[in-house]
Every structure is written in C-alpha cells, then in structure tokens.
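Appendix C. Worked example: dTDP-4-dehydrorhamnose 3,5-epimerase
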Amino acid sequence: MKMLRTALPGVVIVEPQVFGDERGWFMESFNAGRFEQGLQDLGLPPAGPFVQDNHSCSATGVLRGLHYQLPPHAQGKLVRVVKGSAFDVAVDIRRGSAHFGQWVGVELTADNRRQLWIPPGFAHGFLALEEDTHFLYKTTDVYARDCERAIRWDDAEIGIAWPLAGGTMPRVAAKDSAAPELKYAEAFG
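Step 2, the predicted output written as structure tokens:
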C-alpha cells in the first residue's frame, strides 16, 4: 500500500496495490501491520485497533456530515467507496492547531480504490456523486450517541468547495442542517 500526505497533517490517502489480469483483480483492502508502519513512516502516531465497521448507501447528491465524536469516544476513521463515487472531506477541529478550520477533499471511487485516514480531531463528511454509492468506514472507537457532534456542512468560514452540479443543493439530514458552525461547535482541545 502507498500512503500519501494531504494538505492537512495527519490526514492520509491510502492507495492499495491492485493485482489484475484477464480474470479480474485482487487487492488487500486492509493490513494492520502495513497500515501502522505506513503511518509511522510518515511520522504519524499509530491509529490503534479498529473496533467497528460501518456501511452506508447513498443516492446522488446526498451529503453526510460533518460528523465527529468527542473524547472519551473520539474516532479515527479509515474510509473507502466500494460502489459509486464520493467527494470525501476532513476538517481540522483541533482548537490550537495551526490548521484549525482547514479542510481537505479527496474523490474516493470504486474504480480508484483509494481510502482516506481521518484521525481523531477531524470532522468528516462526504457527498455522494453517483446513485447507489456504498461507503465503508472502519472506526477506532464505537458509536457513542452522547459524544456525537456535527458541524454545518456549508459553514462559510470553513468554505468547503463541494462539487455540487449547477449549484444544486445537496440532500442533507435534518440534524446535519441544524448543526452549528465551527465557531459555535464543541471542538477538540
């Protein structure tokens, strides 16, 4: 696997090695030892064990996020798309960080097989770019409703450039539409 830095220190693109021939292809989608070694090689802290896997399916134009969990159930997420495509976003929400409020976006598709590592301290969201987009999440802590938080997906101070066709509005859950802006949200540190 190949680990690529992004503009946000700690957020990493993971590109698996794919072996293909006329029969199809094979890839190792996750290997704990290689993943941890890749983070270490980039000078990053270990992710720790993954304890929960989630799978969502979204229609074109569905936007999920920006979600995170506070300690003691802060989550790191390793995410990928196995069908369709999505524009995936991480936002630094660590107060005191030199990158606080900055974001990075990566297109994850079933074809490019890329994954994104989002460590604790970052909010996460994505926009489904195709019908029937299947998104997989590995998390380093379990879902904990009392620690769950969200930030508005369209917070002008963050300024995420969501790839919305022709200025259309995304389909967003009511709780995500009601989420506070980052300046009012409970953030890390």
